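Protein modeling request. Please complete all fields; requests missing the sequence field cannot be processed.
Requester role: graduate student
Desired output: 3D structure, token encoding
Chains: 1
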Amino acid sequence: MQRYDTRGMTPAMTLLFAVTGGFAVGNLYWAQPLLDNIADTLGFSYSAAGLLITVTQLGYATGILLLVPLGDTLDRRKLIPLVLTAAAVSLLASALAPSYGVLLAAFAAVGLTTVSGQILIPLAGDLADEAQRGKVVGSIVSGLLTGILLSRTVSGLLADAFGWRSIYFLAAAVTFGLALLLARRLPADLPRERLGYGRLLLSVAGPVRRYRAVRAILAIGACAFGVFTMFWTGLTFLLSAAPFDYSVTQIGLVGLVGLAGALAARKAGKLHDRGLTYPATGAALLLALASLALAALGQHRIIWILLAVLLIDIAIQSLNVLNQTRLLSIEPASRSRLNTAFVFCNFVGGALGSLLAGVLWSIGGWSLLMLVQGAIILIAAAVWALCRRHLSSTG
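Delivered output (395 residues):
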């Protein structure tokens, strides 16, 4: 059987994958701090502005389901630059949009096409040596997390200086440049199983049915990401209200503390390479529970909140890398489809977390939010404990 040349995943290639993935996923978040600005420019209501984020996220979920599985059958040296080019065109359309309707369609297209990072991760799993896979995947996921965290800050700064359209012109140019670079730098893909598109999409559920470990990983990941989005959504409510009364800019700066989570993700990948995935997952769940307790007790003191933000980001992002790296080791021929299932389940968990955050905040405020999040982490811990034999065998 032909094998990939694992020497292809050099530190320089890992960095290129991380930058590309981070920039791609950042495309989902440029607009979040700019909604008021965009609404004022194009003359629509703030409630309509919120729909821009919704269609972007729905587009991303659709892209995960329809495009990422293609990485298991098509030549990724062609597929990834093609997806990046489509994203660049969508970003350019966003920058030039003359009306709300056109912008809505352009944002949906941005979400649909900005999935290259989730195609790159399984490719990195193929190219990386077995002993280095966790480190490589951790570095790339760290790039994605950094892109998410920095995108809001960068877009706000550029919009203040040059207007909101400037970020989309710049993003289109950089994305197209990355497409050209990857078209030249990606190694040739090996021949793989050919499946019709319909069968390919249906086969995403195959590994989920076959492996109990996959089901456990998806459940833990959905719980963790649901808590993550619930925490950050609730944090906005908390810091906007008394006694903090923070501005949008100040809340954004608090978010930069989360960069520690991106750094922790790289370390978590190394733990997988040392065969410590199972105990490290348990430790990360315990750290998440401790951070929620700290956030509940210190809800009126910013230093405690900042420490809780630091710890929960380290815990959740470490869980994300440990789960994703373990998943990519289960069935190498289905890595893109496994990644599709993982990201989609995370997305569902995150969407439910965002929805619950608003409901719980209105009922019981920050304390109730922390209590429910703690219960969700305990559910994830129960899955981790009950599936010990299956999870231990995969990492």
